Amino acid sequence: MAQSDFGEAGNELPPSDDELVDRTARSPNFNERALPISMVVIHYTEMQDQGFAIERLCDPEAKVSAHYLIGGGGEVVQLVAEDKRAWHAGQSYWRGHRDVNSASIGIELDHPGHAYGYRDFHKAQIDALIPLLARIVKQYDIPRANVVGHSDVAPQRKIDPGELFPWERLAEYDLCLPRPEKLELGDPFSNDGAFYLALERYGYDITDGHKAVEAFQRRWRPEKIDGEIDGQVRAILFQLLLDRDRGVTR
């Protein structure tokens, strides 16, 4: 890693000139991007302590990182420069991209996750996420449909940020797609195979169909996550595709 990327050797990055960043901490876990930035992936840390999360994300042995970590109290810590490829998504896929890390900015939210007592995200944390995400989306002209959760891009392995993440708050600021409210009548999918093909067309990896449906439900119908293709799930997917084809859901 060139010192010019992060300043002098040590654990601290130079102070950020982004007023939305409270402090910086140097992670060595990054490399060069192979794609332009067109996505944001939101994660939770699934750790009990923010300090330990920073330690892990900056540990060269862990080989994981993110561009930002947002603490429960709203502190924004930058770990990797945005023009670098942070290692946050792992093996993943979204809308034709198999190198999601190269195409995305990764934001970790300090949170115990499902392993340590899943709960609502702190208001201060989401209040800090919204302006940061707004700046990123505007700067890189990221479509709302490409602001996604880790479970969306890695449905076979991941379930974060989970069913309690407040996507509706982000949607209020046009930072992600809202859940469709008015659903078209009728069922356009003649069988489950047609539904899976439509789900793939929308952007999901359908290698494991059940997990892909769970991920779709976790994002779009979080009140019931069972991996089953029912009429409501079909209607939501159909509406999302219809809106996209109409140019409504960029």
Structural class: alpha/beta
Q: In terms of quaternary structure, what is this?
A: single chain
Q: Which shape, going by the Cα principal axes?
A: globular
Which residue ranges are poorly predicted, with pLDDT under 50 across at least 5 consecutive positions? Answer: 1-12
Give a verbal description of the structure:
By secondary structure, the protein is α/β, with parallel strands linked by helices. It has helices at residues 3-6, 50-57, 100-103, 123-140, 150-153, 167-172, 192-202, 209-220, 231-245, and strands at 23-24, 30-32, 39-44, 68-70, 76-78, 84-86, 104-109, 147-149. The chain has a six-stranded mixed β-sheet with strand order 1-5-4-7-3-8. Strands 2-6 form a two-stranded antiparallel sheet. Mean pLDDT is 91; it is low at 1-12.
What's the quick description here?
This protein is of the alpha/beta class and 250 residues long.
Write the layout of secondary structure elements.
Blueprint: H1 3-6, E1 23-24, E2 30-32, E3 39-44, H2 50-57, E4 68-70, E5 76-78, E6 84-86, H3 100-103, E7 104-109, H4 123-140, E8 147-149, H5 150-153, H6 167-172, H7 192-202, H8 209-220, H9 231-245
Parallel strand pairs: 1-5, 3-7, 3-8, 4-7
Antiparallel strand pairs: 2-6, 4-5
Overview features:
single chain; 250 residues; alpha/beta; six-stranded mixed sheet; two-stranded antiparallel ribbon; 9 helices; 8 strands; globular; disordered N terminus
